[in-house]
Design a protein that fits this description.
52% helix; 472 residues; 14 helices; 5-stranded mixed beta sheet; Heat Shock Protein 90; alpha+beta; Helix Hairpins
């Protein structure tokens, strides 16, 4: 919060129209007034500016209870209650109120910053210069023959105007201390609430901005996927024609092709095939991101997929001078998977391994049956609870190539991300293969990870749960 904001909150707290009951605890105020009355034997009442009684140390004096036995006395007591309640003292000028004859009250204003918060009423009491009740007081209970008036009169505190002034100032000073503490707490509470409201407003605004940004990103992602799908689809038709015509030229259908021309046509055909593979990858990525790609899972064996991949890529490995090996377990149990997509996963991983493995190196594919460790299943608590570890087929593609640093291992599965642009440019690639691989593995409820291949290279490990195919 800036100093200007803090100042505006402070000003807001000061200008707020608070009441006396907002600043003073009613119980504490009553306790303070009772202590005052106990010390000085002078009853105290405190009213708020709205007329609510906040503290009263005595209630109805015994003199008034006696007067209420007579009709005239009862009317007089009622008039006193109304007059005291309606007393309107001026700022800094207490007002003296006469109740029944000879009985006095003093009313003074409780102020803060020039604003009235309430009133202090001291009394009833008698003037110490008057030793006996006035005759007019006896007239109020004439029908009772005035018995008991003198005794009840003597029960009232007797004070001089000087003494009542000192007591009023003492009580006011005590109240000012309580008001200061109450105002301090009130302002702190108000400023805290204002700060919380401001923080909540800012948080709400930020959340709304984040929500809007998220919705925009979702829309952009959708548009991107649609764009990739549309462009890739539109490119395939002319590209298929280019590849087809280049094949016909190489076969001599349009006439004999000279060696130099044949070399050019072969280059056209090769680059067309590369471009077609890129378009297929873009289409696959678009389908995976939009959730429109469906997997056709059937019972298939991991060693059969490994053998197929090794057979397909052996010419590529031979051309580069890299040994392509297979090391799968025999008699692997069948797994429920899409064989074409699993083949695509292993081909992508193997092609990557071949690209970044130098001449004379090796790439080894394997498939083994194993029980997945409890830590790999999401927590060690399952072992303690006796949970059954799930069976998986674990595929691995190990190479003796340039390897992948720990910092890059988490990013290589991002679409279009390339570990080393110089190495990638030399070997070729678009950065889509591993992103597609990860999504296909996720579609099989599997996992993919990268480990170092001692002493050099990398190992990509794919685990696919071994689910029993449904019986028909």
């Amino acid at each position: 919060m800036t100093p200007d904001e803090a100042l505006s909150l402070d000003q807001l707290a000061i200008e707020q129209k608070f009441e006396l009951e907002d600043l003073l605890d009613k119980g504490s105020l009553g306790e303070m007034c009772r202590s005052f009355e106990s010390l000085f034997e002078l009853p105290v009442r405190i009213y708020s500016s709205s007329g609510a009684l906040l503290a009263d140390t005595q209630g109805v004096p015994s003199l008034y209870r006696y007067l209420e036995k007579a009709k005239a006395g009862r009317r007089a007591v009622q008039d006193v209650a109304t007059g005291v309640r309606r007393a309107e003292p001026l700022p800094g000028a207490p007002v003296l109120i006469e109740g029944v004859p000879g009985v006095l009250y003093q009313a003074s204003l409780i102020e803060h910053e020039g604003r009235s918060l309430g009133r202090i009423i001291l009394g009833p009491y008698t003037d110490d210069s008057q030793n006996e009740p006035p005759a007019a007081l006896f007239d109020l209970v004439e029908e009772l023959a005035g018995e008991g008036i003198a005794q009840e009169w003597a029960n009232l505190p007797s004070l001089s105007s000087l003494a009542i002034g000192r007591l009023e100032r003492h009580l006011r000073a005590t109240l000012e201390l309580l008001l200061f503490s109450g105002l301090k707490a009130h302002m702190a509470s108000h400023m805290h609430m204002a700060s919380v409201r401001e923080s909540f407003r800012e948080l709400s605004e930020r959340n709304q901005k984040l929500k809007d940004a998220y919705e925009r990103l979702k829309e952009l992602d959708r548009l991107k996927s649609n764009f990739l799908a549309t462009v890739s689809h539109e490119l395939r038709t002319p590209l298929t024609s280019i590849i087809g015509y280049s094949e016909m030229l190489l076969e001599g259908i349009a006439g004999e092709v000279q060696e130099e021309q044949k070399e050019f046509v072969e280059t056209i055909h090769e680059k067309g095939e590369q471009l077609l593979e890129l378009i297929k990858s873009l289409l696959d990525l678009s389908k995976l991101e939009s959730g429109t790609m469906s997997l056709h899972k059937v019972a298939t064996t991991g060693d059969a997929i490994v053998k197929d991949v090794v057979s397909t890529l052996t010419p590529t490995a031979h051309k580069k001078g890299v040994y392509l090996l297979s090391a799968s377990e025999a008699d692997l149990p069948p797994m429920l998977a899409d064989p074409e997509r699993m083949r695509q996963v292993l081909i992508n991983l193997t092609e990557n391994a071949l690209k970044f493995t130098p001449k004379g190196g090796s790439v080894t594919l394997s498939a083994v049956h194993k029980k997945e460790a409890a830590s790999d299943m999401g927590g060690g608590g399952s072992v303690l609870m006796g949970a059954v570890r799930r069976s998986v087929i674990e595929f691995s593609v190990a190479d003796t190539g340039i390897g992948i640093s720990d910092a890059e291992k988490k990013r290589v599965f991002d679409a279009f991300y390339q570990v080393d642009s110089s190495s990638t440019r030399e070997a070729g690639g678009t950065g889509l293969g591993l992103s597609i691989v990860q999504r296909l593995v996720d579609g099989h409820d599997g996992k993919i990870s990268i480990e170092d291949n001692d002493p050099q290279g990398s190992v990509f490990i794919v685990t696919v749960p071994l689910k029993k195919p449904p019986t028909t």
